[in-house]
Amino acid sequence: MLSWIDGQSAELLSVKDRGLAYGDGLFATLGVRHGVPQLLERQLARLALGCRRLALPCEQSLLRNELLAFAAQMGGGVLKLIITRGDGQRGYAAPQPCQVRRILQAAPRPSYPAVNAAHGVQLFPCLTRLAEQPLLAGIKHLNRLEQVLARAEWQSDMYAEGLMCDATGRVVEAVYSNLFVVQAGQLLTPALTRCGVAGVMRAELLAQAMQLGITVLEQDLSYAQLLAADEVFVCNSLYGVWPVCGLAGHDWPVGPLTRKLQAIADDLLGC
Amino acid sequence: MLSWIDGQSAELLSVKDRGLAYGDGLFATLGVRHGVPQLLERQLARLALGCRRLALPCEQSLLRNELLAFAAQMGGGVLKLIITRGDGQRGYAAPQPCQVRRILQAAPRPSYPAVNAAHGVQLFPCLTRLAEQPLLAGIKHLNRLEQVLARAEWQSDMYAEGLMCDATGRVVEAVYSNLFVVQAGQLLTPALTRCGVAGVMRAELLAQAMQLGITVLEQDLSYAQLLAADEVFVCNSLYGVWPVCGLAGHDWPVGPLTRKLQAIADDLLGC
Q1: Which residues are bridge partners to A5 per DSSP?
Q2: Does pTM top 0.90 for this prediction?
Q3: Which residue segments constitute the domains of chain B, with CATH numbers given?
Q4: Contact check, Cβ <8 Å, B145/A54
């Protein structure tokens, strides 16, 4: 598969890279259709936020041009971008100045079961809790052991996704998706100020819902509120929106706002 | 510098490695003298614990043999071992079966200022807090952004180390060291059940102090208790023990138990 490091075709990386050593970097996953990366501006905005948080000096225009050129070569599939602080010597102190490294990898588009979008998914209730770290909340950094542990909790194909809560039991997100609930016509998604990844599809749906005049809330969501919701769905930038139809013996119907936002997501992704 | 991947001389790694993608792995830093890795059995014991926690199937005897062979080639310096879950496809789910990867790198021994061991060090009071994640506490995994952020808080050579607390303000450790206090003749070090790395020198000093009949406590340590301590010191497996003489305007004398344990550490490390 196509793979670039710093703009050059390469599949091998220095063992001194700080992405490997400490997870010192960020990543992003972009759908690519007809040679074009999807939701590119939102992806770049989130990367810029991540770079600011981690003090990674990465030029946006360089990144944009590289993503566009790589996607053009790919044609279609999934583009994974990793940005790291580059090579380091031993020790946590970052080299000054550091040479930020860009790693781009192409992969085939995953083939999700059609039933996920059509009838909804079951969530596995993960026991792995998300630790609260406001300095890293929201950004898509490379420290992802919590997601690895959570994803290892289930093997059955019955579950398309897993629900993750924080240490105090608040609902935060799914393992590789964001989560929304609809309650009394209002759209609510967990605030991601303590933990969680603020996905680009989440940002897009929040913006579009507001434009539609829907009341949109980013706030804490308890497990009881989740169970009491009228509609529940998950989203990400590859599959769009999946209704959630079940979790630990609780069922939800697939509701009209979920379908409306699913259609918007499909439209954005050209499905 | 000498570098092996899976027993073969190599300095380049697949960009598909899950250590890079998610920090899905462990590391260890071993001093090497006269071709022998220091505190090897304790290092292996901690690696075994880490492998169990992350469900990494890594054979201890293979690891031991490789560390011994690599150290023999090095002669002296610092040996860094990284264990990852090997290559993965896109997504958090681990490949079944996975092929654990071993990466060994040699580096020169850092030249610490002699004054650190002789007169003690100043700690920088880091604002970065350690998030509480019991599933990952104690082990030396590759998700180290908190340490990267903490280490970036100071540039002045005045500080040899930085103090790290958890979100509720409990004292946990230093950025690349463990921390001990002496209070009324008792030796106390923070319990590392919520966060922190349980270093091999920490384990060694706890064992040795118990053998000397010293009362040893692993428990929560408040900032107020730290300030009220008779003696404070930090330790790791490379430099041994450094007395802590200052933190944010507070001073401690270098006490007799610190000196006793420093001598034990020096003896272990052959200093």
Answers
A1: A8, A103
A2: yes
A3: 3-107 (3.30.470.10), 114-269 (3.20.10.10)
A4: yes
